[in-house]
User: Which sequence fits this backbone?
């Protein structure tokens, strides 16, 4: 009886989300190159069928504080290991042993399960409303942007701006939200608003009075400055890049140590991009993003879903390297 009730509850949640968020125009309203949110939610089953086929090699008697470390280890790997991490997270959630619950939607987002994360994020955000869960809002908005649902992404960001972290983290919270707004507007093609948001975030970061991590504020502002510069960057093919090997550094998710990005230029073109990093969970971004840069001969490439910060850091580091090669 409990399983029937649980299934009914899940179906009600999915139905509510579809009704609330699905665009009436369906696939026709989805931007080119983007998957349809309406179709994804219509097909979504919680838990998905593939979860049954995944073997979890972990002692579920261990507490979540240990289990979460195993989840993060698994998510840093590829293929079935990522799914094992998702299943492990789901099993702890069913036990009711998963901390404050923020890691369920977060790991779903980081593993590329954006549709499932869209169902789970509102539950968590409703529970912590008024506490300034900025990271959750940013990830939730990113899920909608993945589907090209920019109006919904902007609505989430509006809620985030009304639910800023309390002092002394309020300013950095506002800066993070403003920078992400710039990303969304840039993806929408509204460069004027993107520039405005980036400029405001750059202004805000150095003014934060947070008690620790202040030495990184200028670095955060510099990362946003790179995104601002990239908005007006001319095509690399029109730039006379000097042959050689150049290295740039950028602040990634692992803030303790810079990410090092080495770019090789041959015949005026990007021949190779290598990344040295200490990112714990990159979802293949340190391999995929460099491949995209070389293939496109451009820094304007898509980020890896769930690894936005890492992806942006790679582009940032490559940008710093290419400036040494003559990029203006």
Assistant:
């Amino acid at each position: 009886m409990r399983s029937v009730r649980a299934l009914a509850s899940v179906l009600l949640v999915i139905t509510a989300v579809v009704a609330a968020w699905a665009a009436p125009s369906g696939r026709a309203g989805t931007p080119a190159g983007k998957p349809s949110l309406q179709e994804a939610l219509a097909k979504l089953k919680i838990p998905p069928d593939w979860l049954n086929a995944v073997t979890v090699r972990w002692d579920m008697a261990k507490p979540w504080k240990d289990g979460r470390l195993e989840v993060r280890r698994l998510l840093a790997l590829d293929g079935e290991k990522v799914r094992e991490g998702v299943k492990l997270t789901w099993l702890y959630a069913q036990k009711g042993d998963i901390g404050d619950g923020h890691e369920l939607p977060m790991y779903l987002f980081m593993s590329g399960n954006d549709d499932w994360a869209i169902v789970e994020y509102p539950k968590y955000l409703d529970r912590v409303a008024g506490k300034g869960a900025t990271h959750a809002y940013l990830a939730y908005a990113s899920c909608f942007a993945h589907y090209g649902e920019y109006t919904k992404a902007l609505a989430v960001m509006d809620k985030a701006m009304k639910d800023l972290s309390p002092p002394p983290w309020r300013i950095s919270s506002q800066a993070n939200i403003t920078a992400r707004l710039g990303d969304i507007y840039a993806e929408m093609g509204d460069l004027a608003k993107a520039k405005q948001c980036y400029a405001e975030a750059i202004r805000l970061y150095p003014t934060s009075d947070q008690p620790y991590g202040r030495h990184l504020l200028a670095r955060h502002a510099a990362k946003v400055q790179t995104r601002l510069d990239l908005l007006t960057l001319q095509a690399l093919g029109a730039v006379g890049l000097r042959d050689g090997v150049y290295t740039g550094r950028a602040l990634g998710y692992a803030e303790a140590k810079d990410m090092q990005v080495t770019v090789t230029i041959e015949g005026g073109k990007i021949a190779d991009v290598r990344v040295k990093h200490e990112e714990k969970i990159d979802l293949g971004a340190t391999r995929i993003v460099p491949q995209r840069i070389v293939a496109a001969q451009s820094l304007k490439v898509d980020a890896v879903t769930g690894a936005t910060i890492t992806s942006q850091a790679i582009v940032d580091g490559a940008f710093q390297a290419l400036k040494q090669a003559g990029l203006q």
In short: Residues 40 and 310 are 26 Å apart (CA to CA). The chain has 13 helices and three strands. The first strand starts at residue 244 and ends at 250.
